[in-house]
Amino acid sequence: MPIRIVEVAYDDERAQELRRQLNDDLDQRYAPLHAPAESDEVRAARAEALRTRPEEIVQTWLALDEGGAAAGHVILRRLGEEWELKRLVVTPAARRRGVGRALTAAVVDRARTDGAHRVILQTGAAQPESLALYTGAGFRPIPVYEPYAATMAGSLCFALDLD
After folding, report:
1. 59 in helix, strand or coil?
2. Which phi and psi angles does 145 have, rounded to 5°?
3. Which residues contact 80 (CB under 8 A, 6 or more apart)?
4. Rounded to whole angstroms, how far apart are CA atoms 98 and 3?
5. Secondary structure element (H or E) that encloses residue 10, with its range
6. Helix ranges (DSSP H) in the chain
7. Cα dihedral 53/55/56/58 (nearest 10)
């Protein structure tokens, strides 16, 4: 499937829809792992840790299929001094066709061009396809970093050195 990677605004409707689909998928994958008696305070703190603020966003990309439909999405954001790959999602129909690799490459290329020394990311064990993608792209495990350490200590975090 030929794909085209395009830069879009964070609030692009197609990007928003793919992030909604990602949220639904992650809710299904991770809800069973959260304690049944988890407090509203813990849930709110986790939502805050996962929030992407507009001022942090460097770029948002979509992968478009040959018909122009959105097949994937990713964000590059500045997280303090770090450069973070965030909100990577590939539609079910586009999986196993190189879309995730192409979106990851867009993030890495832009971060490198802008002077980053590494790209970091956060994921989890309930996303085996993501783990395979990231390790296949050369990312290596690192300790869980903020803002995830307090509310998602079981996260799996990775970095790719660009130097």
Report:
1. strand
2. -110, 165
3. none
4. 9
5. none
6. 13-30, 40-50, 99-113, 128-136
7. 120
**Torsion sign over Cα 133, 4, 85, 43:** negative
pLDDT digits (tens, 9 = 90+) for 9-48: 999 999 999 999 988 888 787 776 665 667 788 778 878 8
Please give the domain boundaries of the chain with CATH numbers for all domains.
Answer: 4-161 (3.40.630.30)
Two tokens at 23? 């949220």
Both structure tokens of 36 = 């049944």
What value, to the nearest 5°, has the Cα angle with vertex 142 and ends 131 and 61? 55
Tokens for 53, please give them. 């603020």
Residue 141 three-state SS: strand
Assess contact for 20 and 73: CB atoms under 8 A: no
Q: What is the pTM of this model?
A: 0.89
CA gyration radius for the chain?
15
How far does the chain reach from its first CA to its final CA, in angstroms? 32
